[in-house]
Amino acid sequence: MGSTTVLLYSACPREGSTPEEARSALTLGRATAASLGGDLEWFLLGAKPSDAEAIAAEQGVARLHHCAAPELGADTQVAALEAFCAAHAPRIILFCQDFDSRVVAPRLAGRLGAGVVMNAVAIETGEALRVTASAFGGDTRGVYEFTGDGTAVIGLQPNACLPEAAESPSAPESCAFETDLGAVGERIVVIEAASSEGPRLEEAEIIVSGGRGLGASENYHWIEELAEALGGMAGASRPIVDEGWTDASHQVGLTGRITRPALYLAAGISGASQHMAGCGAAKAIAAINKDPDAAIFRYARYGIVGDCLEILPELVRAAKEQRHE
Amino acid sequence: MKIYVFVKRVLDPDAVNNYALVGKLEIGADGRSLTQTAIPDLMNAYDEQALEVALRLRDAGTECTIHVVTVGADRTAILRHAASIGADEISEIVPEDPEVDVHTTAALLAAFVRQKGTPDLVLCGRQASDDDQGVVPALVAEALGLPLVNVAKAIEKHGDSYRVTRVTPDGDEIVAVEGAAVVTLSNEVGDPRYPTAAKKLKARRVSPEVVTASDLGVSGATRTKLVQQFVPDVEQNCEFIEGASPAEIADRLIERLREDRVLP
């Protein structure tokens, strides 16, 4: 039998505070470690968040490992993790799934000869390690069993669980992990970086999103106007991004942005699972759709059955009036 | 140059979604397979986009052989479709166990490519629309020691290097990679081409090369197995807002959102 340690890995490209996803992952990791009778550990690569020690204590982390890295390309991350695993051999390595970890996690698994499951929403330990993962764009869940005792790499979907503090905080031991990353050459060179100016949909508190129900490209401006009137951001379903009504940076869904706003207002969106994967974690969904049987109403807290082109202008007016009150 | 395109046969995800939304998606007696025969099979749409990008490289003047490869028995239909739109060679790799996992799939594909000789480019979809895992490209890249560029929408060849446009959450990014690489493609590639009737007819006469796991010497690569599949429950709890006019409905919604403190 190998080690029973459960490790969360976080890449920290910038200084700042710990993202909420890491706290959720630590909560899930703590339960998994407890059921295996092992420890929860956390490995930070890059700039250590200012609140890392406090979060680690709150979440019951036994050891907090940190390794500085000048840059965090995929080759650097895989090399650092490979070295870390050679030294510590965790049983389970958890990743908070995001754009970069969708490459780093399976590459690490390939490097280690480990098993990997992405899109995980739950972990069960028992006779075997089992992971429940989203499939078919969220229509189904698959339960995967790891067939051996070797390292298991698991990518956790954002919002797999809610963060919860440990019953009693721990006194995490801080460990500096040293490995020579200078020799790692990044094989992929960025020539033109993405222009990420402005706020990100992932961090928006209010999102107004439009779909095919808008009828035509020229009606998308109602989404932008309502978003502005509510102090939020504009989103879109994949079909209208594919049609070019707005650009891909607005796409919400499994293959777009995974958002978690306080309010997600969906206009003319049917509610396909692919889309819901990107907004299902909203605290409240309000939906406008002509079809009373549209799937979106299964997820919505507030529903309006009607033509979004009639309702949206009135919502813009009402939102502006409310703002001026 | 030699371009490999890996494709997967999947159940039509739109048909699966339609059945799931009306609560009629059936799971077979084994507790893990989707058994409805009314759901058609097709080539994973992201893989079709990968093939489209290979064909666009050729259209742009790159001399290349495009070799389309899949894992699974009886995959003639999707492979012939690939041939009808311009694939030069088509192969299917038959695994030992038809319920092959991602790790064995990647091991088979990597062994196949290794046996055929060095690739210049390996293309495939960013993920399969059935399991959504998206890990096979990374596992193949590791097995072949190649870099991986994921979620791309365009590839240009400049001498021995490639310029790849990636669709990142922060917008498009252009990266360069020297020599052979694995690249995954996303829906932003745009619509893949269709075959002409004549090419479709002609493709009916081609048969894929069939290779087995034992031909490739691959065994023991399995790391996971699917033991169960189910449709998650959704609790409906929607308050429908009504009114005499769109204006009244809009006012009422804003009012309710404020009452519940969803809006400040």
Characterise the protein shown here.
The complex is a heterodimer of chains A (325) and B (264). Chain A is of the alpha/beta class and 325 residues long. Chain A folds into two domains: 6-176, Rossmann fold (3-Layer(aba) Sandwich), CATH 3.40.50; 201-324, Rossmann fold (3-Layer(aba) Sandwich), CATH 3.40.50. Helices cover 28% and strands 26% of the residues of chain A. Chain A has nine helices and 15 strands. Chain A has helices at 20-36, 52-58, 74-88, 101-112, 221-230, 238-242, 273-276, 296-299, 308-324; strands at residues 6-12, 40-46, 63-67, 92-96, 115-124, 130-135, 140-146, 152-156, 173-176, 188-192, 206-210, 233-236, 263-267, 284-289, 302-305. In chain A, the strands form two sheets. In chain A, strands 7-6-5-8-4-1-2-3-9 form a nine-stranded mixed beta sheet, sandwiched between helices. In chain A, strand 5 and strand 6 form a beta hairpin. In chain A, helix 5 (221-230) packs parallel to helix 9. Chain A is elongated and about 60 Å long. In chain A, 54% of the residues are buried. The model of chain A has no long low-confidence stretch (mean pLDDT 93). Chain B is α/β, with parallel strands linked by helices and 264 residues long. Chain B has two domains: 2-216, HUPs (Rossmann fold, 3-Layer(aba) Sandwich); 236-264. Helices cover 31% and strands 28% of the residues of chain B. In chain B, the strands form two sheets. A nine-stranded mixed beta sheet of chain B has the order 9-8-7-10-6-1-4-5-11, with helices on both faces. In chain B, strand 7 (148-158) and strand 8 (161-168) form a beta hairpin. The longest helix of chain B has 15 residues, at 45-59. The radius of gyration of chain B is 22 Å and the shape is globular. The termini of chain B are far apart. At the A-B interface, helix 4, strand 5, strand 6, strand 7 and strand 10 of A face helix 1, helix 4, helix 5, strand 7 and strand 8 of B. Strand 10 (188-192) of chain A pairs antiparallel with strand 9 of chain B.
